[in-house]
Specification:
alpha/beta; Rossmann fold; seven-stranded mixed beta sheet; six-stranded mixed beta sheet; about 45% helix; about 20% strand; elongated; Peripla_BP_I
Amino acid sequence: MQFKLNLIVGAAALSMAGAAFAQDVVRIGHVGPTSGGIAHLGKDNEFGARMAIDELNAKGVTIGGKKVKFELLAEDDAADPKQGTAAAQKLVDSKVHGVVGHLNSGTTIPASKIYSDAGIPQISPSATNPKYTRQGFKTTFRVVADDVHLGQTLGKYAVTQLKGKTIAVIDDRTAYGQGVADEFEKGVKAAGGQIVAREFTNDKATDFTAILTSIKGKNPDIVFYGGMDAVAGPMLRQMKQLGINAKFMGGDGICTGELPKLAAGTMADNQVYCAEAGGVEGEQKKTLDDFKARFKKKFGVDVQIYAPYVYDAVNVMVDAMVKAGSSDPAKYLPVLAKTQGYKGVTGVISFDEKGDIKNGALTLYTYKGGNRQQLAVVR
């Protein structure tokens, strides 16, 4: 009888320990395109999340008096809105405590309603379409500047610094590509430049002969492309084949280390200009450089573009959980919304009333010798 009682007590103790362990696991979801044409950017994002999770677990984090273990639930949305919403629903059903993602505005925006309905905080490290944080949801945040700032800054730069008098604009008809192109066009016009052509393609196109031939007839000083590097690279190759010698501009979607490879060596020095939605200066640059060195040592590849922002987003989310003393979304969400002065590897993070980063920086780049070179940080 005593033996049987011991077994019952032991089983109850194990059951209680298992329940306690389950409560002490904090699940953070990440979604990005880890398949398809921009899988290199999606993996970059995922690696940023994994690095943050691994470091948090190595450090040992206590929330509400309990030591917790973080788990990353990573999903692939292939930069497709339908797959993005399916991934979002899967994470909600898995009862994640928060989500970092998605990468593209076209997947981030539709997914945001699913997270909002479930009350799960979402921080995008890279979606720049203004609509994302202007839907009235309390759960949406981002750690980069939006397209209004990015596109209009590039438009002004095209006219005032690159002396572009006639400018052609192409976009890929995604929420990101069309959004940044629209804002770029506004910036050009405000600075006194002239838009001589507005064309569109799609985010999976490979042949641009028709639209580029039409643009060539307008003889523009600058061609702006709203979209991602997987399309921009082949577009640059075909511009060279057609003898279009205009400067080429784009937003953060083309501003990657892979662009010269995707353009197959056809990029001339100082031909391509782009902006990244973020930027650091002074002592902060050393912090970011240290992160990039750790990242390369861990994964064996260089940072593409967004990994540091993903890393910061995970840490900002966990910082709010620690301050709230709970990983329950309903309890830490109000604390996350009040984030002010968090020091990340990408700079100081403070959210405004919409969930946008305050005083977001932009970094302007060009390419020389097949490498990206920083021109300036602007706010």
